[in-house]
UniProtKB/TrEMBL annotation, chain B:
Every Response regulatory domain range: 5-123
Record carries keyword Phosphoprotein: yes
UniProt entry keywords in alphabetical sequence: Phosphoprotein
Stored PANTHER family: CHEMOTAXIS TWO-COMPONENT RESPONSE REGULATOR (PTHR44591:SF25), STRESS RESPONSE REGULATOR PROTEIN 1 (PTHR44591)
Record has Phosphoprotein as a keyword: yes
Entry-annotated residues carrying 4-aspartylphosphate: D56
Biological-process GO terms, alphabetical: phosphorelay signal transduction system
Protein name in the entry: Putative response regulator receiver domain protein CheY
Length: 281, 131, 161
């Protein structure tokens, strides 16, 4: 059963209004697939019935479930691997030199979803920082359900099968019933907070590295630009922004320049921004 | 160029079929065995040592842990990459297997994507082979 | 310690879901839809026994049609290519996988038997001194499928074998 145009429009309008997400036409099948479990969870016979009901009687909780279902990113540990290899091979060695006087790093996993990216960053730092160094990782997401889940730091067997080396699994996780839970020593360096990227950013200390991967794709160009501008303000002058494999700032925000990072690319703010210039491109 | 070989060792024919299908997709030539002893016998016959072995834990005659231990003690079989594929998932079991010389560990049930990623982690997947 | 504390119904449901995600429904379009009907009929079943620190069984039961579909999905075959051996082997491995995951949550020292496959309804099986303590009952591709856990109340020793 395919989603009707009217239903698709209803959902599109809802998520655009509530989360600034733009659903491209042609994504009806994806929307439907994501909403089937939501419809089932609330006892509706199918997605059409669920949406018909919602249009008759607005229900903030059900609306929230729709937004959560559509903003949830497929994520896994060490997803795409290359950015993490770039950290290990190139970025961290440089930061270890340039931050030698503070011996502390701050990373941000923006749109952290269920938390695997943030914990992958934590493992990478844990494995590569010399003794005496500390790190803080902030994970933020628009979905409170995801923030709760990431905060628990518990993953299913199927989830820990992906992306983690077996040695990492036994070193950084412990069994908790049917699940695997991040160990306290790793957990304590990661904080998850609810945050909407499309609203003004709350005050945050600057970051050495920002992972903003596979989330800009949901936004229109103006919103993308706004998010990138806001991110630039809290990225250290020599800090790096990592986007998703198929994403770029080029054509959207020329306050960034692309730099090679291992086998992939990352983005750094141009000196004009770093110097606090008011000019915006 | 000679294709790489993967040995699939599990007492479940159904599971062997799944594993064979995956490694064949990755351009390995598959060889199977129903238990550790059968696998050792096959290895003795083969002139070329398989690059990879996917090994169940619980099998009759010789279980996966014993097989791993024997392989790691045999200089001729040094180059084999050993991956456990099993439902045994207690932390201590995984540690034991890694200590005995297994290079990686996949817990059943596993998705095809997860298995391919594990093999990629071990450098056994030609780039572009995984979808 | 009661096993209900160690392996509750939602743990079992999650294990079943992971088996579907991994082997029977990798694209996420054909899940097992709960019916909560403990008495739904079956035509074939497979089981593993757990002994040692805990005694009981894990049973997979379904219609023959569901078993055929499971084999076709598991082995990446067309339905009409599936042999009786394929069905048998698949049912056995499914019981083994769920049983193995259940065992992993029990106190150390539990052991799993080899799977038994019976091409007869689950209701024909007799598990002496055992009660069904938990189960996932549902419909998959319009066919009944259930996975249940049985606990043996008296620790009876396996003689011989």
């Amino acid at each position: 059963m395919t989603l009707s145009q009217a239903d698709f429009n209803f959902v599109s309008t809802l998520v655009r209004r509530e989360a600034s997400i733009v659903l491209a036409p042609g994504k009806e099948y994806l929307v439907e697939a994501r909403l089937i479990p939501v419809a089932r969870a609330v006892g509706a016979a199918n997605v059409a019935e669920f949406l018909a009901d919602l249009q008759r009687r607005p229900n903030p909780q059900h609306q929230r479930k729709i937004i959560d279902a559509l903003t949830t990113n497929e994520t896994s540990f060490f997803r795409d691997r290359e950015p993490f290899s770039a950290l290990t091979d190139v970025v961290l060695p440089e930061l270890i030199k340039s931050r030698a006087s503070v011996r502390k790093l701050r990373f941000w996993s923006a749109a952290s979803s269920s938390g695997q990216e943030a914990f992958s960053l934590a493992i990478t730092l844990q494995e590569n920082l010399p003794a005496g160094w500390s790190y803080e990782i902030m994970g933020t997401d628009i979905s409170t359900a995801m923030v709760e889940r990431a905060t628990k730091g518990e993953y299913s067997q199927v989830e820990v099968n992906r992306g983690l080396a077996a040695t990492q699994l036994v070193q950084y996780f412990e069994r908790a019933g049917a699940h695997w839970r991040v160990i306290p020593a790793l957990r304590r360096n990661v904080t998850f907070k609810h945050m909407s990227l499309t609203a003004p950013f709350p005050p945050m200390q600057p970051f050495d590295v920002i992972f903003l991967r596979n989330v800009l794709i949901y936004f229109d160009v103006a919103t993308k630009r706004q998010v990138l501008q806001n991110a630039a303000k809290i990225l250290r002058p020599d800090g790096l922004l990592f986007l998703g494999a198929a994403e770029t700032t080029i054509g959207i925000d020329d306050n960034y320049e692309r730099v090679a990072a291992g086998r992939t690319s990352a983005y750094r703010t141009r000196n004009a921004v770093a110097a606090g210039a008011a000019r915006r491109g | 160029m000679t294709p790489m070989r993967a040995m699939v060792i599990d007492d479940s024919r159904a599971m062997r079929m799944i594993l064979k299908r995956i490694v064949t997709k990755l351009n390995f030539e598959a060889v199977e065995a129903g238990d550790g002893q059968e696998a050792m016998d096959r290895l003795a016959e083969l002139t070329e040592v398989p690059e990879l072995a996917l090994i169940d834990w619980n099998m009759p005659n010789m279980n996966g842990l014993e097989f791993v231990t024997k392989v790691r003690a045999d200089p001729r079989l040094r180059e084999m990459t050993l991956v456990m594929v099993t439902t045994e998932s207690e932390q201590s079991q995984i540690v034991r297997a890694l200590a005995a010389g297994a290079h990686e560990y996949v817990i059943k049930p596993f998705t095809e994507g997860a298995m391919i990623e594990k093999l990629a982690l071990l450098g056994l997947v030609p780039t572009g082979a995984n979808s | 310690m009661s096993v209900e504390v160690e392996v509750n119904e939602s743990d079992l449901a999650e294990m079943v879901e992971q088996v579907w995600e991994s082997y029977l429904d990798p694209e996420g379009i054909s899940p097992l839809i709960p019916t909560y009907d403990e008495n739904q009929p079956s035509e074939v079943h497979s089981s593993v026994s757990i002994t040692g620190s805990w005694s009981g069984h894990v049973v997979f039961a379904s219609s023959l049609a569901a078993a055929q579909r499971a084999a076709a999905a598991f082995l990446a075959m067309e339905l009409d290519e599936v042999s009786e051996d394929d069905i048998s082997d698949t049912l056995g491995e499914l019981a083994n996988i769920v049983g193995g995951n259940v065992k992993a949550m029990l106190p150390s020292g539990a052991q799993l038997s080899l799977p038994q496959v019976v091409l007869a309804p689950e209701s024909s099986a007799r598990y002496p001194n055992a009660t069904r303590i938990s189960g996932v009952y549902g419909i998959w591709e319009e066919e009944p499928v259930s996975i249940s856990m049985w606990h043996s109340s008296a620790d009876h020793k396996e003689e011989g074998e």
